[in-house]
Write a structure and sequence with these properties.
The complex is a heterotrimer. Chain A is an alpha+beta fold. Chain A is 40% helix and 20% strand. Chain A folds into three domains: 5-289, no CATH class; 298-406, no CATH class; 419-475, Orthogonal Bundle (Arc Repressor Mutant, subunit A). In chain A, strand 9 (131-135) and strand 10 (140-144) form a beta hairpin. Chain B is α/β, with parallel strands linked by helices. Chain B has an eleven-stranded mixed sheet with strand order 1-3-2-4-6-5-10-11-9-7-8, sandwiched between helices. The chains are: A alpha+beta, B alpha/beta, C alpha+beta. Chains B and C meet through helix 9, helix 10, helix 11 and helix 12 of B and helix 1, helix 2 and strand 3 of C.
């Protein structure tokens, strides 16, 4: 009988914090920008420059540490991690090894297999590296230090995950927590959330770990899933052939959907960590911790319960809405204006989700204002526009945050409520469709639908369907 | 008038009194450099044009009352490891032979605000690693008192420039004695302030936890004036300390009555030149006569300061110097194959032997498996050394010691045995480990004519106590700075004035 | 106890430090390092058990900056000393491949 294998996975997750400035200097962290425009002597490692810690970084790191049930290291320090690479201007990265800001936490994940705790070994603060662009023709690389010094936290899990599904659940959980805290937008594509996967396999029942590999450059949940599956198979194959798994770092190639070993004899992996002499210790008082705790937002579970209670919406809806902080915020803000939670929820769950998918966007990318959605809901409710027009207008709101009042006015989309105009059209429709009229009068209720359709068509969709129905019935009575 | 013979504060007064113009003083100094540089080599860069332009600018500001400080208009020099915007800053190294910083070090900015005329950048041991100023890529500096001898190091250029009257004062940096030892060898006053007193922003780092910028001057008054000018709290340097007061010139009073001075017996052992020991005992006697209480005591742990220092300084240096890689600034090797080869060739060609030696040692002591045994052991030793000083300062206000075991050695005699060179730092490195202030003042000459310096070590933030004692000694002995006799006389514009 | 530094160790430290030493430099480095380490080993005479390693001399803590953008576009300065550049980026030998 074939051997049964178990996959053992631990994650190192890097999250870029949503500060305005870099971790050790007053340069902007804004994404994009021409190369090297967000740089200064500090983040480009100029001789004589010195780092000064951004307090907001500590606040965010504390918030994440507390929200992931970590113990806070109340005297924590930075260390230097020494390695040569051009994206690292000092050739050392300021990070934390000996006294990271948080340790021994956990988050709960839920998969088809049920609920489970994934333990967090430690979380530390560090600086991001610059960006390298490779010129294939010239055999050179170009260095842009705009990202150099952007603050990161690295969350290192224990090897508690056993499948790609658990890994994705863990990442989604972390992402949700961090987004709820407002500490990062956690976009995998833009690199503001990155995961390195440590994976080993072992025979089911074994209580020792196999040799693990580390996979880098995983930019999407899909890549992570494929990389995990591929690596599991690769390792099992090696073991089945009686070969050993080599402890190494492997780079995932998204195009080829394949990982390959990053080997170099110049890569000693001996980082010579030592306490950063240019920075002083961070002493985190009980008061500081209390303050951060008191600022913690309502997390998903509490929010979900409150939505069911306060807005009387079904569990399913509340679940979907609270999956992203952005969505939940939009829901609450819009509901506060128009006081129609069920309708707001419908717009968010149906049309918004559809458009997000069509446009390949995430909830965090939503830019429209609750005011405009509230106006739209009110207009549709009042019959000022009918439902198909409402969908058309919503698309404009979604894309451009358009004011629906202005848009409807400018494009003449208002439902025609003028009885005179409607009656005129109805008379024409009745005259042109004698058969349908006869059918209806003969008891075929369905025939009315055809007449309504004809009327709407003639009115270019702007008629109020309820009103058309009423008046038709009235006119066909005799 | 002998313009060059004046002290910085004296010159400042005469400029203020319009007896001397800033331009005349600057020209006198430039003429002196033109005359003695071929013999001394104090400078890596002399900014003649810039200095004259500054002189004019500063004179205007003095005339319209914008600049009133004691150093306004006084020509000065800066060690070549402090950044000045747009000016070559080499750290005495080939690897920075073309580096022009885009910003100015905080300490230098403070000088500029006070109206200093910056003459140029002074020579130094490469990246401040050395005790003789012989490891500079730009050639050794000679001791103005005897050109066959070294000026000491690593701030040898700064000290020789002041001694040879090529500037009125200068800034040095001190990681393990690099201001105090060359000051002692060159017969000038040099101070390493308490760690955190002068901003390190813009000082190219050697050992970040030990480095401190300080003044090199002709006398104690100038020392207080320069310290007062450069010391400041700087939010750009996380290790900068907010001092209660920066009014160091107020410490210049002639009074050491009741001051408790301790002389560590364990400093006066074999290896210390008899002449040096005698000169220091004699100086101690002067202070005693002025009313100080002088005693000998056991400091302890003296022999462990150097090994602890070399572990910590080399480890930090190995990391601090990683940024010199041919990517962002400085020298890049001409031919290479691939990234790592570029790194290795650039650094191997760009750094000199002593720097490479310390980078290798520092990388080794931090490497996997050795960190605890070497680096942490050194940090624990540092804690013990600090505790020994704390204990000593319970009984004494000042610890009196040599600055170096000998007078300046001959050129070419030190580098052949690095170990011996390291051992000569025995009286200075522990002060850096403990972050304390120390001052070296001239206390006479040896039979060979070379100056002898005495070091006074104070408790943290007690620069004023040091200045008071040094000033009292200076007044009692009638001044310490003596113009060197051996430099070929310059044809001085200033002397005719 | 005399320290012995092997060729492998010198090569390894050379990789860490990105220094390429000639055969003679290697021999010198070995001798220097052995001597220095012997000397450093005298620290073992000291009993430091229970002593906290001291990295900072003063108990200064919590030095922070506020999260406010203070730097504008300094691209020209950043690149002013670049040994090689391409457009507004630093140019280096290819890093991957």
């Amino acid at each position: 009988m074939a051997k049964q294998y178990e996959t053992v996975i631990g994650l190192e997750v890097h999250i870029e914090l949503a500060t305005k400035t870099k971790i050790f200097c007053g340069c902007s962290t804004e994404f994009g920008g021409a190369p090297n425009t967000h740089t200064c002597p500090v983040c480009t490692g100029m001789p004589g420059s010195l780092p000064v810690l951004n307090k907001q970084v500590v606040d965010y790191a504390l918030a994440i540490g507390l929200a992931t049930n970590c113990q806070i290291t109340q005297v924590c320090k930075f260390d230097r991690k020494n390695y040569f690479y051009p994206d690292n201007p000092q050739n050392y990265q300021i990070s934390q090894l000996y006294l990271p800001i948080a340790r021994n936490g956990w988050v709960e994940i839920e998969t088809n297999g049920g609920k489970k705790k994934v333990r967090i070994h430690e979380m530390h603060m560090e600086e991001d590296a610059g960006k390298l662009v490779h010129d294939e023709w010239d055999d050179t690389s170009l260095v842009d230090y705009n990202r150099s010094g952007v603050p990161l936290v690295e969350i290192v899990s224990e090897p508690d995950m056993r499948s790609a599904e658990e890994v994705i659940a863990y990442l989604e959980k972390l992402r949700m927590i961090v987004q709820y805290l407002g500490a990062s937008d956690c976009k995998l594509q833009e690199g503001s959330m990155r995961a390195d996967v440590n994976l080993s396999v072992r025979e089911v029942g074994s209580d020792t770990f196999g040799t693990r590999t580390e996979m880098k450059n995983l930019n999407s949940f899909k890549a992570i899933t494929h990389a995990i599956e591929g690596e599991r198979e690769r390792q099992i194959e090696l073991l089945e052939e009686g070969k050993a798994v080599v402890q190494e770092t492997r780079r995932w190639d998204d195009n080829k959907e394949h990982s390959y070993a990053m080997r170099s004899k110049e890569d000693a992996k001996d980082y010579r960590y030592f306490p950063e002499p240019d920075l002083v210790p961070i002493v985190i008082s009980d008061e500081w911790i209390t303050r951060i705790k008191s600022q913690q937002p309502e997390f998903r579970t509490e929010k979900l319960e409150r939505y069911k209670r306060e807005f009387d919406i079904p569990e399913y809806d509340a679940g979907l809405l609270t999956e992203s902080k952005k969505m939940a915020d939009l829901f609450e803000a819009t509901t506060a204006i128009c006081k129609k939670p069920k309708k707001v929820s419908n717009w968010l769950m149906v049309e918004t989700m559809r458009l997000l998918k069509d446009n390949n966007m995430e909830p965090e990318d939503l830019r429209f204002s609750p005011e405009n959605l509230a106006k739209l809901i009110d207009m549709a409710d009042a019959g000022t526009i009918n439902s198909s027009v409402a969908k058309e207008v919503f698309e404009q709101i979604f894309l451009n945050d358009t004011d629906p009042l202005v848009y409807v006015e400018e494009h003449g989309l208002k439902t025609v409520n003028d009885e005179g105009a409607l009656k005129e059209t109805l008379e024409k429709v009745i005259a042109a469709n004698p058969q349908a009229v006869a059918d209806y009068r003969g008891g075929k209720e369905k025939a009315l639908g055809a007449l309504v359709g004809q009327t709407m068509k003639a009115m270019k969709g702007k008629a109020n369907p309820g009103m058309v129905n009423e008046m038709l019935k009235e006119m066909l009575k005799d | 008038m002998d313009i060059l013979g004046l002290s910085a504060v004296e010159l400042g007064k005469k400029i203020k009194a319009k007896e001397i113009s800033v331009t005349d003083a600057t020209k006198a100094v430039l003429a002196q450099t033109a005359s003695v540089e071929p013999h001394i080599n104090s400078y890596v860069t002399i900014d003649e044009k810039g200095a004259l332009a500054q002189a004019e600018e500063i004179q205007k500001k003095i005339d319209n009352g914008e600049l009133v400080g004691p150093l306004a208009g006084v020509p000065a020099a800066v060690k070549d490891n402090m950044c000045i915007k747009g000016q070559l800053t080499t750290c005495g190294s080939k690897i920075l032979s073309n580096f022009k910083p885009t910003y100015t070090a905080e300490a230098v900015l403070n000088l500029q605000k006070a109206g200093a005329v910056l003459i140029g950048k002074t020579n130094m041991d490469e990246f401040a690693m050395g005790s003789t100023t012989e490891t500079s890529y730009y050639g050794p500096t000679m001791n103005p008192h005897n050109m066959r001898h070294v000026p000491g190091g690593s701030s040898g250029g700064s000290c020789a420039a002041v001694a040879a009257q090529e500037c009125y004062y200068s800034l040095g940096s001190d990681t393990g004695g690099s201001i105090r030892q060359p000051s002692s060898f060159c017969g000038v006053v040099g101070m390493k302030p308490t760690y955190g007193t002068v901003s390190r922003y813009g000082l190219v780092a050697y050992g970040s936890s030990l480095d401190q910028i300080g003044p090199v001057t002709k006398n104690v008054t100038d020392c207080a004036a320069v310290l007062q000018t450069i010391a400041s709290y700087d939010s750009k340097d996380s290790t900068s300390v907010k001092r209660e007061d920066y009014d160091f010139m107020r410490a210049l009073t002639e009074d050491v009555r009741g001051l408790r001075i301790g002389i560590p017996k364990d400093y006066f052992t074999e290896g210390l030149d008899r002449e040096v020991a005698d000169a220091i005992y004699a100086a101690a006697k002067v202070l005693k006569e002025q009313g100080a209480v002088v005693e000998t005591f056991d400091l302890s742990l003296v022999q462990y300061a150097i090994p602890a220092y070399y572990v910590i300084a080399s480890a930090e240096a190995s990391s601090n110097l990683e940024r010199f890689d041919g990517v962002k600034y400085g020298y890049r090797t001409a031919e290479y194959e691939g990234l790592h080869n570029m790194y290795k060739k650039t650094r191997s060609e760009g750094f000199g032997a002593e720097v490479k030696r310390r980078i290798m040692l520092g990388s080794f002591v931090l490497s996997s498996g050795y960190y605890d045994a070497y680096y942490l052991k050194a940090l624990r030793t540092k804690a013990l050394i600090k505790a020994a000083f704390d204990k000593a300062f319970e009984s004494y206000d000042i610890i009196l010691a040599p600055a170096a075991p000998t007078t300046a050695p001959e050129l070419g005699k030190s580098l052949s045995d690095p170990m011996k060179m390291y051992l000569s730092d025995i009286y200075t490195v522990s002060v850096n480990l403990a972050g304390l202030p120390g001052i070296s003042i001239p206390v006479g000459r040896a039979k060979n004519g070379l100056p002898i310096g005495m070091q006074m070590i104070g408790n943290s933030f007690q620069e004023k106590t040091l200045l008071r004692a040094a000033y009292t000694y200076e007044c009692a002995t009638g001044g310490c700075y003596e113009q060197p006799a051996h430099i070929p006389a310059a044809d001085l514009a200033g002397k005719e004035a | 106890m005399a320290n012995k530094i092997s060729d492998e160790t010198i090569d390894y430290v050379g990789i860490l430090a990105k220094l390429e030493l000639s055969a003679k430099e290697k021999e010198d480095a070995k001798a220097d390092m052995e001597k220095m380490l012997d000397y450093i080993d005298t620290l073992n005479e000291l009993d430091t058990s229970g002593i906290e390693p001291m990295s900072h001399v003063f108990p200064v803590n919590n030095v922070f900056r506020e999260d406010v953008v203070t730097n504008g576009n300094q691209m020209k300065d950043t690149l002013a000393n670049a040994p090689q550049r391409s457009g507004d980026s630093f140019k280096v030998p290819k890093t991957i491949g």
